[in-house]
Amino acid sequence: QVQLVESGGGSVQSGGSLRLSCAASGFTYSSYSMAWFRQAPGKQREGVAAVDSNGSTSYSDSVKGRFTISRDNAKNTLYLQMNSLKPEDTAMYYCAASPRRAWWLLWAGTANYWGQGTQVTVSS
Question: pLDDT tens digits, residue range 109-120?
Answer without folding.
Answer: 899 999 999 999
